[in-house]
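hey all, quick one before standup. I had two proteins in the batch that finished overnight and I want to keep them in one place so we stop losing track of which output belongs to which input. First protein below, input sequence then structure tokens straight from the run.
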Amino acid sequence: MKIGITYNLKKSDSDREAEFDRPETIDMVKKSLENRGYKVKLYEASSPLLFYSLALDRPQFVFNIAEGKNGSHREAFVPALLDELKLPYTGSNVLSLAISMDKIMTKEVLKLANVPTPNYKVVRPNGHLSLEGLKFPVIVKPPFEGSSMGITSKSVCYNEERAKIDIYKTFQKFKRPVLVEEFIEGAEITVGVMGNFPPHALPPMEIDFSSLTKRELKASAWGIQTYKFKTDYSTKANYCLPARMPEEMLSKISKICEDAFIALRNSDIARFDLRVDKEGNLFILEVNPLPGLDPEHSDFPRIYRLMGKTYEDLINDILNFAIERYKIENKTETENNHNN
């Protein structure tokens, strides 16, 4: 089978390319597929020739890890292009990626599905700035960024004055509405979900910040995944799989993530970030339907390692789930057309 890999290549350390993939990651994905007998070709998503290259080559399946370059819903760009070309691909579709890229819309969908998420307010440029009804501390977030972009050691605010300062700075940097969310103090958990009929949650992984130095902890706002933590200190934390919690709580976390996966129309793979407070209440913070696959730094490969599986296993599991989904969806569509 001919497999195409669509990706955005990280060429610098600029914030603009923070979500793009290193050459090492792209090479590892390629080799992982080639080792299982696939013929693989690379397609850089930033290339103006992307559409024409795919249209001419017509790979039988596309392994999509492209983040997109411009706009609030940039992750949906390549899937939209692949849909236009009628090329099947791994991961979520255009609608799911667009919703999940928008942290505000994600929370609205989760609330409708009765999936717990922290209380929040949206502050818009030139709008009325009121945080009435929110309990402090709060965390200030740009709602359209991945990789914890815009999350700093000062994003957790313990009073309204401090919050308004950070809201203003976030406005200035991103020129978009700002999400202000009640900050949940407690354990930091990330959960990988894979498959489709139904999806299955992998063991919840706890991120333990206690091994960081005082300076590193401060940069991580004393225990959250700031942009600084993800870029500089993620390998220094302790990772516990499964999370250090009773089995009943682990099952509850898995069930809620599977419910969220279905509610957000995710496909094949997604990763959910959660917090569990001291009373045992859990809250989904956000979803990443295009999770990082960096073999050294990303959480999904880390989960696989802790499960005793290889990076090659992860890449081919993603592809196999996508192929299975495509066959079922295509069969269903054929049957419906025949019945009509």
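OK second protein, same deal, sequence then tokens:
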Amino acid sequence: MGCLKGVVEVILYVENMQEMVEFYRDAMGLAVKNPAAATDFRKEEWVVFDTGACSLCLHSGGKRRLGPDSPAFVFRVLDIGVARGELTERGVPMGERRRVAPDSWFCDGEDPEGNRFSIEYMGKR
């Protein structure tokens, strides 16, 4: 076993902190871990969302330098159809579901600044 013990955070550089916090908190349903008491995020430089073992961190100062090879991140879901439906109802642009293996389904989405993400359902493991 190597010296690495797992991923603890993913940092996403953003241009508009308030809009991005509202997207990940309100549309995606993630809880703000830090700063937990804040309501106005326009002047925040660092916002952390609780996503389980690995935190999603927004860092101010992004410049939207995105391309087809930009990193994307994946959220695990219990039911791909239900999750896609909930996100679509909240205004999150989501692609169609696609099967990538017998028990594996993915669906791609995009946040307001064009960062790509996916939701995944992995059946029996």
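Flagging for whoever picks this up: The chain has a mean pLDDT of 89. The first helix runs from residue 17 to 27.
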